[in-house]
Amino acid sequence: MATVLEKPTNDASPAPRARPASEIPVVPGIPFLGNTLEMAKDPAAFFVRCYREHGPVFRIKVFGRESIVIAGPESATFMTTREGRDALRSKEFWEGLIKEYGATETITSTDGERHIKLRTLMREGFSREAVQGQYDNLRDITDRAIGRRWDVGTDIPVVEAMQYMVVEQLGMLLTGQAPLEYVKDIRFAILTILNVLVTRQRPKIMLHDPRFRKARRRVEELGHTMIADFQRKVADGTAPKNLITDIIRANLDDKDIMPDQNLILTVTGPYVAGLDTAANTMAACIYGVLKNPEVLARVQAEADELFAKETLNEDDIRKLPVINGAVMEAMRLWPIAVAQMRVANFDFEYAGYTIPKDEMIYIGTSVPHFMEEFFPDVNKFDVDRYQRPRAEHLQKGAYSPFGRGPHSCLGQGLAEVLMAMSIARIFHRLDLALPHPNYELKTKTAPTPGPAMDFAVKVIGERRPSGI
Ligand code: HEM
Question: Hey, where are the domains in the chain?
Answer without folding.
Answer: 2-462
